[in-house]
Each structure stands twice: as structure tokens, then as C-alpha cells.
Amino acid sequence: MVTGSDILIANGVGVIMSDSFYSVDFAFSFPVPATVISNEDRVKVLNYIRTTENPTATILVAQGWKDVVAASVVSFSSRGPNPITPDILKPDITAPGVDILAAWSPVAPPSIDYKDTRSVNFNIISGTSMSCPHTSAAAAYVKAGHPNWSPAAIKSALMTTATIMDPRKHVDLEFSYGSGQINPEHALNPGLVYNASEADYINFLCKQGYNTTTLRMITGSNSSVCNSTTPGRAWDLNYPTFALAVEDGQPIQGVFTRTVTNVGNSYSTYTVSTYMPYSVSITVEPSVLTFSKIGEMKTFTVKLYGPVIAQQPIMSGAITWKDGNGHEVRSPVVVYNILPGYEYGIPTSSMTTQKTDKFEGPSLYHKTGILGRH
Predict the structure, then answer these.
(1) Environment class of residue 134 by beta-carbon count within 10 Å: exposed (0-12), middle (13-18) or buried (19+)?
(2) Which of 73, 169, 197, 367 has the most CB atoms at less than 10 Å from its CB?
(3) What is the CA radius of gyration of the chain?
(4) pLDDT in the model for residue 364
(5) Are 264 and 306 in contact (CB under 8 A)?
(6) Is position 31 within any domain?
């Protein structure tokens, strides 16, 4: 990795680097004035040096400009699909995490050169270490406005009110950006939320292969019980998104159950609108939800049907509930392929010669891989 340190040893005052490691969509801090150029531009610079008696260069102070590419997901950000539970869409949401001005430890090197002895209180940082505090602050903001909301309700509010990302900029679609770009102001008044209780998560974990003993290690309660450890789909977990993982070569078919809680206007009526690629049939029943008080809950089902698919990267759409008064509760819907021989994220015995107890499933699934990546 080029850090610019060698130029200090040579008593240089700046450095022009060409390195394929660096991406154009995020920046690094260097110990000297520096710029990173493409391999094509490197050839031009070398030709200039070789044909000029006294070659010179000037590195100007960076200037801000309107980035017409934004908002887009940076190249180093992790992509879906979910390797452990394919019926849960991941990532959930997108938050600012590139070139963020943030507090910095004054005893830590301020650049990527670990020998850099300078001390600063602020630095430009990129990564999940920046996205996480943005999302945490947004959750705290929603919590301050609604102290009695559960973590699931807050998460739902953030996801269903997110700003829609441009699919033309992301070949991985929702596997890149999830529900979209976080919008804390809109999340304060989502209209409807997908809440979830401890019982919902217990049901989900039991279907993922946990037994009573291991379940109690998670919940910390001896009252937690798995009545069945038979693997099952996660279609009834009250999550704000819909993901249908279809075994390669099988038809599209799935039925999801969801319950929404009214947190908007006391008297309100929501009508659903849907979008999916033409090859996928989507039905929501009922298509109209009427509420008469805050806290009232309504349940609906989503049915997805379609032809046999093979090597299908991702087909994405959305379900949106609208009340005509500014509330639009949007949930992404994705359909994609997984490898044959998997049941609910746990490989069958025909897929591996290793011991396949309930806890080896997710790791084996991750090792074997998933279809549907670009």
C-alpha cells in the first residue's frame, strides 16, 4: 500500500501516486500533500517527466463541488444477500459514511502512515465507523420524539421513510442500499410501523434451528421455549422488508404475513400500491387498511408468484402504503436465487459431508455461497 511515507525519507514536499488500491469514491489522509491518479494519467505524467528538462507539479488545495453522483453506495461497503438468513433482506439502510469530518484521538497518527507524529483533534474518515454513529443518532432522535417506541418500531420508521436510491447507479440494487438513504426527519412521523415483540424473535430463532437450550442463551430467560426446531421460512417475522430466496430452477412462490401499527393520525385509511417486474405477480390482501385510533394494529398478507427462475441476480420492487395525508410507508421487495439443496439457509446433508447440526448451517451456507450476485 502506498502511504506517502517514502517521500518524507527523501525529504520531499509532496507526492503524486498511482495505485489501483485506491478508489475514486473515497479519500485517505496522507502525511504530505498528495494526490492519487489513475493508471492512464500515470502514463501521461511519466511521459511529461521524461520529455521535460525541469518537470514541475502543483498540488492545489481541494475544492468542494456538487457531486452529481450522490447519493451512491461506496465501493468498499458490504453487499447482500444475507448469507445466514436469506429471507431477511440485508443491508437494511444506507447512511453517510464517506469523507466525514469527525473527532480524532490526538495520540493517534492522523494519516495512513503509522509513523506520522502529528496530532489533530479532527480528521476525515470513511467507513462503517461513520455510518454507524449517523444511524445511531437518527435512532436516538426518533426515540426522543417517541420514548415508548420499541427498537423494532424505531428501526421500521427509519427504513420505511428512507429516501429511495437510484437503481441505475447500483448493479446490486437493494443488496447495495437496502431500504434507501436514511431520512431522520421523515422517520419521526412514519404513519405506520412494523413492530416486533420478543415472541416474534423467539419464533424466528426456533425456525432458524435454535433449540430451547441455545435459545435461552440468547434471551437470558428460562421461560423461553422452542416448541419446534423444524427449519422454516422467515416469512412471518414482522420485518419492514420482503425478501424471497428461491432455489435455483424453482418457481417463484411465497406468502408473507405482516402487521402494522398506526402511529400517525387517529382516523386514517391507507391504500397499498405495488411495483414488481412483469414476471412476478404480487398481491396484497387486504389492499386497504382503515384505522380508528393510535396504536391500532392491522394484519395483511403479501403473495408473490412467478415462473421458474435460474441464475437470476435480483428482481426488486416495493410495497407502499399511502394515506393521502403525506404518509408513505415503503417496503422493498426482492426476489433472487439461492443454490440448490438449501432449506431456509441450512444446507441439506447432500450438500456437504461435514456434520450439519443446527449451528453449522449458517457458516456452511456462507462458505458455499449464494447465487444472485452481479
Answers:
(1) middle
(2) 73
(3) 25
(4) 26
(5) no
(6) yes
- Tally of CA atoms within 13 A in the half-sphere of 123 that contains its CB: 23
With respect to residue 362, please indicate whether it lies within any of the assigned structural domains.
no
Assigned C-alpha cell, 341 = 439443496
Burial of 146 (0-12, 13-18, 19+ CB in 10 A): middle
Q: Residues 52-90: pLDDT tens digits?
A: 999 998 888 777 777 777 788 888 888 989 888 899 999
Biggest alpha carbon–alpha carbon distance for the chain? 82
- Residue 372 is predicted with a pLDDT of 36
Q: Is the dihedral of CA 278, 284, 288, 289 positive or negative?
A: negative
Backbone torsion region of residue 48, taken as left when φ is above 0, otherwise alpha when ψ lies between -120 and 50, otherwise beta: alpha
Identity of the residue numbered 119: S
Which portions of the chain are predicted below pLDDT 70? 1-5, 20-24, 341-374
Task: State pTM to two decimals.
Answer: 0.81
Q: Is residue 29 part of a domain?
A: yes
Q: d(Cα 324, Cα 270) in Å, to the nearest integer?
A: 8
Rounded Cα gap, residues 316 and 179, in angstroms: 11
Distance of CA 57 to the CA centre of its chain: 41
In a domain, 32, yes or no: yes
Q: How far apart are CA 100 and CA 123, in angstroms?
A: 8
Task: Provide the domain count of the chain.
Answer: 1
- Which of 304, 301, 313, 329 lies closest to 236 in space, CA to CA? 301
Q: How many whole angstroms separate alpha carbon 294 and alpha carbon 296?
A: 6
pLDDT at 177 (0 to 100): 94
Domain limits for position 24: 5-51
pLDDT for residue 15: 83
SS3 content of the chain, % helix, strand, coil (to 5): 25, 25, 55
Question: Can you spell out the DSSP letters for 177-244?
Answer: HTT-B--HHHHTS-SEE----HHHHHHHHHHTT--HHHHHHHH--TT---S------STTS--SSEEE
